[in-house]
Amino acid sequence: MHFRKHQLLTAKSGFTLIEVLLAVVIVGTVLTAIATTLTGTVKNAAESRYRTRATTLSQEGLEFFTRERQLEGWGDFQAFFPNGTTTYCVADLPNAGQLATLSVGACATGQGIDEPGVEFLRQAVVTKDPAKPGQIDVVVNVSWIDGTLTPTVLLERIYRQTDS
Description:
It is a single chain. By secondary structure, the chain is an alpha+beta fold. It has one domain. It is 45% helix and 25% strand. The chain has two helices and six strands; from the N terminus they run ααββββββ. Strands 1, 2, 3, 4, 5 and 6 form a six-stranded antiparallel beta sheet that branches. The longest helix has 64 residues.
């Protein structure tokens, strides 16, 4: 009986240091993976939101040129643009019939469309090629800064003299 009592007193209970360290490493790895996944999800959601907004801004830009084409008629519309390629900063869309109020030149930081957490720069690149009479190419691009990247959404429309 005495021997049995001694065995009970010397028997080890609980976890060893190695078991505890291994459990901490496993839990830490799982928590790091969860945090990384959540961070990536939030970043992807923000990028998707910005890309959607940039697409909307690009579409609005093209709709401005389409409206001007319809209001002004082909003669005045094509006469406004010089031969060659010209870039216009289209931060704010002018009112109908205000094509002449477009700012010539690329947009600079501070000339964009401010949204919470980001600034969008909307530009229209208009090409009037004398070798293609009766045609005006318009590319509206919207860009924004996302860390070290500058994503851009481009939409293009070709306007022709025969368009109604």
